[in-house]
Amino acid sequence: MTSKSVCFGSLVLSSLSAVLIGCAAGPQVTRVDEMKSSAAAPYTKVLVVSLFDSFDMRRYLETELVSQLSAQGVDAVASTSMMNTRTPVVRGTFVDMVEKIGADSVLLTQLVHLETRGKETSMNPQATYNVRPTYYYNVFSVELTEYVEPPEQSLEYDLTLLAELISVESREPVWMIQTRSKVEWKSAMERDYSAYVEEAEVITRRMSRDRVIAVN
To answer: Which residues touch 67 (CB under 8 Å, ≥6 apart)?
Structure first.
């Protein structure tokens, strides 16, 4: 192992499912730790890694984190930009990425808590009637057509994400933030990307405030 290697500690692949899809109330910071002072801070070359079961969810959040960091002048690279769904999500994969781009730090995000509540609502059916007279006195033919929509399903998520900045030089976390979000997913057709943007904004804003990254 070279001096560019990084230790991710205990990396657990957590299931995010569709949590970050929907209407979010906005993440709230619940904990911030500057875990260990580092002579290498502020960091300028960051590998961004998100650990969720869904590759798309990882890619969405990593893309927004890279966008926010780049806007502040940090050279950031998403791990999903250098891999696909078949690439092993193991320590060695990310160590190789660190060495390839010459990163001095790794921004790692993962799910630490998830509580889900669901509700199903029956939709009101609509009906049309077609009434026709017959050859018989006071006898009518009635056709009834009903248009029934599938029940509406809504899901509410209470989730906590952990983001750690890990120093490549010391192989230890030097900064950590924990955020809590309440996300409402109102329908299977709904896809709201703003939750990723808001999460990335909160994390990178705090990184800048705590001076763990070099900004313009």
So the answer is: 200
